[in-house]
Amino acid sequence: MTRLQRFAVSSALLLQSLAFASPEPCLNGLCHFTRNKLASRTVASELGPQLSANCNVYGPDDTQFGNCTARYDPFFTPKIQMVVQPATEDDVPKIVQYASANGIPFLAMARRHGMTSTLSEFDGMQIDMSLLDKIEIQPDGKSAILGGGVFAKNIMEKLWDAGYVTSSGSTSCVGLLGPALGGGRGRLEGYYGVVSDSFLKLNVVLANGTAITVSETEHPDLFWAMKGAGHNFGVVTSLEMKIYPRGVDTWYYKTYIWTQDKLEAVFEASNAFHNDGNHAGHHLKEMAFNMGSYTMIPSISETEGVIFWSFVYRGSKEEAQPYLDAFDAIKAVSTEDGNVPYPEIPGVSGTGMNSTLCDYGLNHVHYPAGLKVWNVTTQRQIYDLYNEKIREYPEFQRTTVNMEDYSHEGVDAIDPDTSAYPWRDRGLLSFIAVTYDPNPALDEAAIAWAQETRDLWNAGAPDLLPSTYVNYAHGDESAESMYGYEPWRLEKLRGLKAQYDPDNLFSYYNPIIPNMNPRSTHESNFQGRQIGAKSRSRGQ
């Protein structure tokens, strides 16, 4: 069954393409065909003349193809037939129109950090947004225009040097919009909310190639949806975003490494720090972010994981110290601290360009959980399981179990009904990343370990419905766990899908409405990756 047999294409758009693309006459505009297997040179000859001078089209035989398609996590990999790089925003509608008219699935990417299994259902054209990297501070100093391909490091550095900051994800190498369209968690959310709370307007290309501006006054319902479920609705070619005075010249950071016998003390201190999930009465806005992990450091122990933890404070050591006294009282193997400018904070706290979070090419089998408080008993169970699995599978030595605790004041201050992001009450994000060199013989064990860890977190919070930060999703979670259990949320999102993407062309990143005919050949490679049956029933 061809793709255009699954999706109704308007006659006007199809006839426009057929003028130069159809291999056979099509007089009534209702023909059904796909040209998904076109050679890149054919696409270049047909589409290229419509695009600006610096656009590129690459196929698998081109030397640039590998760099354009290399992924942080190759475990679930979309099948890319060709790469088209727009050089200007005006190129994107033409690319989308061409792809839609010719039955070619398309997927826009910037930094290729997505890890969800639903990406493996894709087979088609990658729209590489990386050339759309403008950063333009507006004359009033209250906003900036950002291209659809910008990423965290560039934004942080350019704005900081000009005296500003804005919200972005916590990892330097990750694009801005990938996380932001799913809400976006980051170090400044205690001040300004999740990343999408700083959106002012978005320039969006819809599935039919129409370019529209989306804001609180233009298509406001779609603006609501783009702030938390935006991957389902369009390609963002640029956006205007709030920026803020940068404030203090340096941020204080401190990292600790503890051995496992300190585990209970660490998590009890952490729960006390954020008032057992209540946040009230704590100076948490300045203590922007703290994160920990179970990880192997062979120089400390070759048989047991250690507990790594980092804190970052927007201010001086002296101001931060009262909040760290309880952690200083727990004897550490080592500590490190200092004051650095904000753009250097990722590098000193484990999320910079040289961190493992920015190493491409390793499998990272992922499962998350959203929490309000650390269950200390559960954290011990997960740690013991970590050591057990490392002993059983030495190939998993680079695995980390990650715990993130964000400042929450700015997130709490925003009415949860004003955006599609549903999890403002979950301050703690946790996830396991079972990490190893690609090896199909290990895949089933990796998935089983990751699932067991996620299930332990959820079992340790029996009063909470399981929640999934959509950007950390494995891909087999329910739509409700990603987009909210309140019935009105998914009802509204599905109504907007019918309005703005009736053919469900944007259905490859944790979709609201599942892709009903995912690419089956990839899933059949390995039974443990066969999420198709689950994904097709998500939220139904």
Structural category is: alpha+beta
What's the count of strands? 18
Specify the number of helices.
19
Distance between the termini: 23 Å
Question: How much β-strand is present in the residues?
Answer: 15-25%
CATH architecture of the largest domain: 3-Layer(aba) Sandwich
How do the strands of the widest beta sheet line up side by side? 15-12-14-13-17-18-16
The percent of residues in helical segments reads: 25-40%
From the 3D structure, determine the CATH topology of the largest domain.
Vanillyl-alcohol Oxidase, Chain A, domain 3
Overall outline: globular
Which parts are unreliable, with pLDDT below 50 for 5 consecutive residues or more? 1-32, 279-283, 519-540
Taking Cα atoms only, what radius of gyration do you get, to the nearest Å? 23 Å
Biggest sheet record: 7 strands, antiparallel
Report the average pLDDT across residues: 87
Supply the CATH class of the largest domain.
Answer: Alpha Beta
Count up the domains: 3
